[in-house]
Amino acid sequence: xxxxxxxxxxxxxxxxPGCGNFGIWTAVKEAAAKERWNNTNxxxxxxxxxxxxxxxxxxxxxxxxxxxxAIPVASAIKMVNHRLNVMVFTGDGDCLAxxxxxxxxxxxxxxxxxxxxxxxxIYGLTTGQTSPRSPHGFKSKSTPMGNLDEPINPLxxxxxxxxxxxxxxxxxxxxxxxxxIIQANNHNGFSVLQILQPxxxxxxxxxxxxxxxxxxxxxxxYNPQDKTAAFAKTLEWGEKQIPVGVIYKEDxxxxxxxxxxxxxxxxxxxxxxxxxxNETLETFL
Length: 285
Prior knowledge:
The protein is α/β, with parallel strands linked by helices.
């Protein structure tokens, strides 16, 4: 049986006190306990960044890849055994800079993956450089005179690229975050959950107070299947104008649903055909 207690590891968390990652870590464990995720049915893949340490703090099968390459690794795992819950933990730099190409094309294919985007709008692990999510004018070690770039909107990008589940949460609201993680994982298709996760050390703009004062929950009357309305919601940002909840949801066959080679059984259960190396070479030469 999966419980919050047996999901703990011997490793002590080394995130900065007050880091938004603590809320995400807690919510993931709560979700895993509720849904009975364990080492037989679930895998987490992380990129490089403060978010990647979650592999060390939760007792689930995991893999930490190269910077920006978490989604390709997760895609491979899902193709080999599509019955697994495959969750990608990635940061705004890892996912939207180094990994931006992978993010866009996985959404386009509607691969059945859950992307948990730790968004603190900064490169925290490398001690505070501007990321693709940092606001225009943001001053950091890499932009001491102010950031010249406009920030990427990951949810607008996800919907336009083809993602079929798009949501946003604040890391300090653990009950709602837990529910959204479960919804994202249960959705059949490419799910993106942007988590507003303050970096209390290097980003003094997007603080816990900022998100507590400026986020609002989408009302029950909101229709997440309305793509036009969803685009409009993703563009809302500012004082008391940041929506959280399920912003867009569409029922459409996932990439894995359309691959004939895995319809009957996962690839891991298919016996590999033994071939002589010369036969293989002759096939390609």
